[in-house]
């Protein structure tokens, strides 16, 4: 993040360090012996002998810029580069630690994972991944380096952390009992971007957060920004906290989430220790079937308009369209009636939660054979949806002992992994060029 000058309050030399921890003492009058602007370094470093080049940084930044779906303003790009630089240093430390612990990553492992990512994004032609990366100013080597870092760190954690994490049966039973007691209450799946701040750095952190929100509102990837900027342990998961109960969150986050709808972004707002940008990904009732998981059989009936159509013609045809559809006697009659007004009918099975938020409630409250109100425009066409079938979701069974045990183990492993990486940073020898 951008660094801002810290205004130091006047204090005597005798008590200059009284309010600081760790024995740090800062005199009242500071004489700067040498200019040192950390934002004006060249983009390269040597981390315990391993070199991070300017090209490494440029290629990795290009990945994030592409995820932002557009060019970044100069100040935003500068901030992105600094964060990506720190990430590359962490990644280097993780790869080095895997080698030191004799769990290195092979080229075959990296290439296999790269092929999987390519197949997920480009289907039957994974070779397009190379072309895409080069086209955005990145490279296959950059993405493969990131993959190597992720695999390396997983190897280290499996060897040095996971075997030493123990969850007692009593802890699991207490968690199961708590979940049963809370059955039917709401829980929220939240994405977070947390930026730490002190009273001295509050204004700079706020400006950073506001610029991140601006980029997100313009189509930037929340997951990508969370990975690069969030200072929470959830950054490794793209900021995804998973489903949580409001009583486990800071009061400001809980109050904001209570008023949000899935897909809504809020922030930045203050929480203890810093600022929060929050995305409500989803919400559900604990232990209850979610109506949005119902599978709906729908028929879409639509009409189109020529590019040069006038509004009066649109209004008249929409009126005819609406009145004609009222005469339908159910889903079996849809094609015949639609043909009389030159309308198109398309049938599909779709899960309710995949529909736009404003459509979900209407369709879930409809009976078989009913239609929605017309929606659309002259440019995109006007259509209705007819409900022709509905398979409600099965009742959700409570979490079992093994599932809860695994969840608690993963939570504890993640916390220890964060401490492990912090220790690697503290012990590293890093030379900036």
UniProtKB/TrEMBL annotation:
<dbReference type="InterPro" id="IPR000297">
    <property type="entry name" value="PPIase_PpiC"/>
</dbReference>
<dbReference type="Pfam" id="PF00639">
    <property type="entry name" value="Rotamase"/>
</dbReference>
<dbReference type="InterPro" id="IPR027304">
    <property type="entry name" value="Trigger_fact/SurA_dom_sf"/>
</dbReference>
<protein>
    <recommendedName>
        <fullName>Parvulin-like PPIase</fullName>
    </recommendedName>
</protein>
<keyword id="KW-0413">Isomerase</keyword>
<keyword id="KW-0574">Periplasm</keyword>
<dbReference type="InterPro" id="IPR050280">
    <property type="entry name" value="OMP_Chaperone_SurA"/>
</dbReference>
<keyword id="KW-0143">Chaperone</keyword>
<feature type="domain" description="PpiC">
    <location>
        <begin position="185"/>
        <end position="282"/>
    </location>
</feature>
<dbReference type="Pfam" id="PF09312">
    <property type="entry name" value="SurA_N"/>
</dbReference>
<keyword id="KW-0697">Rotamase</keyword>
<dbReference type="InterPro" id="IPR015391">
    <property type="entry name" value="SurA_N"/>
</dbReference>
<dbReference type="InterPro" id="IPR046357">
    <property type="entry name" value="PPIase_dom_sf"/>
</dbReference>
<dbReference type="GO" id="GO:0003755">
    <property type="term" value="F:peptidyl-prolyl cis-trans isomerase activity"/>
</dbReference>
<keyword id="KW-0732">Signal</keyword>
């Amino acid at each position: 993040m951008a660094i801002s000058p810290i205004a130091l309050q006047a204090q005597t030399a005798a008590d200059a360090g009284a309010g600081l921890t760790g024995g740090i003492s800062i005199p009242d009058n500071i004489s700067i012996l040498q200019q040192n602007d950390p934002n004006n370094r060249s983009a390269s470093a040597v981390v315990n002998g391993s070199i991070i080049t300017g090209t490494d940084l440029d290629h990795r930044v290009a990945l994030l810029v592409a995820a932002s779906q557009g060019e970044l303003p100069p100040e935003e790009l500068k901030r992105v580069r600094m964060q990506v630089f720190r990430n590359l240093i962490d990644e280097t430390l993780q790869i080095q630690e895997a080698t030191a612990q004799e769990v290195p990553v092979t080229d075959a492992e990296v290439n296999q994972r790269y092929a999987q990512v390519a197949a997920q994004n480009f289907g039957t032609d994974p070779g397009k991944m190379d072309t895409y990366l080069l086209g955005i100013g990145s490279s296959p080597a950059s993405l493969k380096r990131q993959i190597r870092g992720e695999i390396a760190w997983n190897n280290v954690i499996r060897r040095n952390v996971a075997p030493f994490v123990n969850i007692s049966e009593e802890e699991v039973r207490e968690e199961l009992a708590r979940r049963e007691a809370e059955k039917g209450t709401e829980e929220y799946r939240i994405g977070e971007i947390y930026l730490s701040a002190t009273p001295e750095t509050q204004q700079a952190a706020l400006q950073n957060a506001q610029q991140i929100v601006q980029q997100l509102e313009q189509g930037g990837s929340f997951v990508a920004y969370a990975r690069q900027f969030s200072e929470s342990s959830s950054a490794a998961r793209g900021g995804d906290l998973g489903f949580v109960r409001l009583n486990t969150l800071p009061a400001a986050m809980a109050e904001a989430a209570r008023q949000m709808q899935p897909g809504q972004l809020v922030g930045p707002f203050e929480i203890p220790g810093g600022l929060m940008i929050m995305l409500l990904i989803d919400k559900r009732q604990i232990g209850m079937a979610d109506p949005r998981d119902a599978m709906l059989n729908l028929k879409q009936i639509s009409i189109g308009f020529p590019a040069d159509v006038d509004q009066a013609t649109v209004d008249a045809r929409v009126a005819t369209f609406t009145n004609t559809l009222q005469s339908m006697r159910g889903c079996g009659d849809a094609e015949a009636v639609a043909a009389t007004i030159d309308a198109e009918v398309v049938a599909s099975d779709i899960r309710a939660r995949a529909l736009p938020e404003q459509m979900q409630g209407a369709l879930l409250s409809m009976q078989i054979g009913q239609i929605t109100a017309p929606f659309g425009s002259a440019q995109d066409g006007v259509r209705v949806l007819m409900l022709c079938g509905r398979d409600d979701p099965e009742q959700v069974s409570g979490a079992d002992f093994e599932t809860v045990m695994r969840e608690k183990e993963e939570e504890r492993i993640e916390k220890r992994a964060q401490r492990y990486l912090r220790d690697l940073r503290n012990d590293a020898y890093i030379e900036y060029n």
